Fold this protein.
Amino acid sequence: MKHLDFLEIYMLFFVKSEAANKLYFIGFLLPSIHSAPPFFTQQPHPGTNATATEQWSTLILAYARYRKLFLLRVEDAETADGDWAEVLRNERINRKILPSYLTTLLAAMVAKNLAVFEPAGQTRSVVLHWRLPDEWAEVLHTWAISTGQLNTIMTFYEITDPPVPSPLSNIPISLLKKTIGILAKTGRAQLIAVADGEGVRFFQGTGR
Amino acid sequence: MRRGVGLAAFDRQQQSNRSFAQLSSQLSQAQVDNLHAQLNQFRTALARFATTHRDSIRKDAAFRHAFQQMCSSIGVDPLAGPRKGGWWAEMLGLGDWQYELGVQIVDVCVSTRERNGGLIEMDELLRLVRKLRGVGGGQVTEEDVVRSIKTLQPLGGGYEVIVLSDSRKLVRSVPKELDEDQAAILAVAQQEGGRIVADMLVARKGWTHNRAKTALDNMVLRDGLCWLDEQDEFSGTAYWVTSAMKWDV
């Protein structure tokens, strides 16, 4: 899993800047290929295309993880001041990833389970798996324990928008549901219908 | 020390000088011995590691990779040593230094083939091989690489050094002949930092537009030697020769 190594490096940068009490802040380090003009065009040669696709997937996931971005839409390449502009565009060499290419990339990432189409049934926007749902399940369970939420009923809103920001802030509902589903299988959470929608209750459990 | 005034004082001074000299040589001798002992210990430890793990290193690719990473992180070149073959080579029976370098060259060529179509610039190859060899790898020169590639030729992998018209060198790792047009395109692309469009070839080489276009399309589609750029400001479509571009691994 090459892209995971790559992610780890960015995480290291992040952790380092946190450790220094934010005295300094290391920005996202774009790989050198990002300044190569042909990187922004879909390659007709299958081998070349595979290389480019891998580089793009890695880059997109690393950036999503760094900025805590969950959603990527085909339109994101069109706005110069959007969340994704720094990666999907390179103003210095006057290139941006074209919508048709980004659509292909999204499909390739979905095929590798690095993302899922959201909402389902279309191909223009995805939820990115910069953590796999299994990993999110662990994060969610650890968070529930550390904030003392065991055995009480919580709404999804309390998880996606907690008063104290958590690693799960802004997590898309679809991914959250999938995550809860994984915990439910190991008896560590239970999906519950509440007055205005759905909620969840967490249990101690060991995950076995 | 009290200085006497008589003749006997000279003798005494000479005597003490001699004693100090003796003491100093004893001390440095002890240090040298100590270093030798440490070196011997290190060597034995390495030798023991090599013999116990020889089979794993040779058979298990993942273990070999981890071993090489370990060597590179502590700055030890697994091929280096006092003799040409090196301790490791001797212990592991991997063979000649030259062949080892060959293996590293193949490693770099194969791992970059996907993106450069099997054609890599000499400087870039040297940079990556040196990176692979770690801190002590600075002594690898272009000549070493050229010689190693010659030793690879009997294997029939198609490894060959290509010299362009401006005397820059490329290393080819696919058993495929570059035709004359492609060699010309590579030479022009090198001067342009990798970017090439059909009009350049028409203007500089006097080719017809069709010939230039066909040659470029072949390089992209058939051989994967070029990347396509459809957002070029000047001519809409440009071609980029990847072996002339710099990459991070």
Remarks:
- Confidence is low (pLDDT under 50) at residues 81-85 of chain B.
- Residues 179-249 of chain B form a domain with the Arc Repressor Mutant, subunit A fold (CATH 1.10.10.10).
- Chain B touches chain A at residues 114-115, 117, 195, 220-221, 224, 227-233, 238, 240, 245-248 (CB under 8 Å).
